[in-house]
Amino acid sequence: MRDFTFLYRGLDTSASPEQMQQTMQKWRTWFKELGEKGHLKDIGHPLETAGKVVKGTQKAVTDGPFAEAKDVVGGFTLIQARDLEQAVEISKGCPILELGGSVEVRPIQVLNM
Amino acid sequence: MVAVLTRIFGVRNLALAEDVVQDAFCRALEVWAFRGVPENPSAWLMAAAKNRALDVLRRERTARTYEPELSRFLGSEWTLAPEIEEMFTDKAIKDDQLRVMFSCCHPRLPEEAQVMLILHILCGFGVEEVASAFVTTYTAVEKRIPRAKKILAGSKKLFDTRAPADFTARLPAVLRALYLLFNEGYHGASAEFAVRAELCQEAIRLARLLLEHPLGATPATYALTALMYLGAARLPGRVDAAGDLNSLADQDRSKWDRNLISEGLNYLDLAASGPNITEYHIEAAISSVHAIATRLEDTDWDEIVSLYDTLMTIHPSPIVALNRAIAIAQRDGPERGLEEIDSIADADRLQSYPFYAAALGELELRRGQYDSASAHFLTAIGLARNEMERRFLKQRLSACERAG
Lengths: 113, 404
Hints:
Chain A has 113 residues and is of the alpha+beta class. Chain A has helices at 17-36, 84-91; strands at residues 2-9, 40-42, 51-55, 60-64, 73-81, 102-107. In chain A, strands 2-5-1-6 form a four-stranded antiparallel β-sheet. Chain B has a domain at 1-88. Helices cover 70% and strands 0% of the residues of chain B. Chain B has 20 helices and no strands. Chain B has helices at 2-9, 14-35, 41-60, 68-74, 80-87, 90-104, 111-122, 127-133, 138-154, 164-186, 197-211, 219-238, 258-271, 279-292, 301-314, 318-332, 334-342, 354-366, 370-383, 387-403. In chain B, helix 10 (164-186) runs parallel beside helix 12 and helix 11 runs antiparallel to helix 12 (219-238). The longest helix of chain B is centred in the middle third of the chain and has 23 residues, at 164-186. The radius of gyration of chain B is 24 Å and the shape is elongated. Chain A binds chain B through residues 21, 24-25, 27-28, 31-32, 35, 40, 42-46, 75, 77, and chain B through 69, 72-73, 75-79, 81-83, 85-86.
């Protein structure tokens, strides 16, 4: 078993409360399934679209990330899967895909030092 | 509400669950004072409790619940709000009430404490109301409830109503507690009221909740529910307009609730399956014989005596024996009844029970022994537990004096 991060992009936070509630019920159902199958390492959290970006040796602070809404990371989850292929298969059930968003599947790098 | 919140925060945090409810009520008082009572006050309170639960969970960020799966979903913003939403749906609330009901019937708690906890946590009775339901003092209940809660909290988790073996093992204790709750209302020893209809109603509500659960809907539960319905049907006749207690013989049977009787008979039909016969079956059957007799003279006393015979074999007690003797007196005359009373084993346990002396008085009166009857009623009056009983017994005493 390996650990993967799912990075979600294109989470629509401007939906009405009713739509939002429906969407979040879908996420809940999906997470429940993943939990039952033993793929859920940490549900993680959704993220607000704007914050601050701290950069370089100067530790310069700017507002950010100012990308297109569909490109901003809207949340993350830690997943356990056999390999990348299975992790990708798992990601296909994510409700964000139904709403035009995307899931980026990234294996957690094991640093051997 | 407390039932749901106990599941969220875990049974060790019963106090936190109660605080959240308290908080919701305080908010209600503040807001309603300004804006008036909302159209659906209970929904408003639920929503307030829900929001408050979210606040608490967010502040601590570690759901303190007992179930690892649950705490994981309450711990993430992805699922926190939908999870809480789900827990406040009707069905989830009913499940939680069952869980708490079973948790309250903890084997380490005495039966009386179990019933007190059920009243306090599930029926929302305050300490004072619990005290008056049990004819005990405020201080006594104030001491007992926290002690009982501590035992409950020691069990670390709420009873899991999905585990069939545990459910079935604890069901008899739960039925027993509901039976006691109902009886406390029906012939309670309360100082002011001999009948406390609200206790009976709560017992019926909880019994029906049990019937909605696939493992709870056993013949014994149906029998207990039948017993409650048939008893509740006769409540309007037990107390008259002046607030006086009426004996079965003097009750205005037109006041009995026909709907409740037919529902009770229905439940009794549903109870008639399976190999086991419980005391609830027999008591419900006795109650049904009374309920279907339109006049006292029409009562099938043969049937009642034989039901009491059965009850004596499966669940003997001096009170059952006394009631059996009274039924025999109805069938075969007062002399036979007195003989039966004489032969009750453990009759000394009945010495402080006012209706033991009253039964002797009644039978002596019927066979014309007025002096002896009066003496028995005087004893009974001395033992009466509330004003209603006392007034009732005094009326019987004056009946002896008039006859004599």
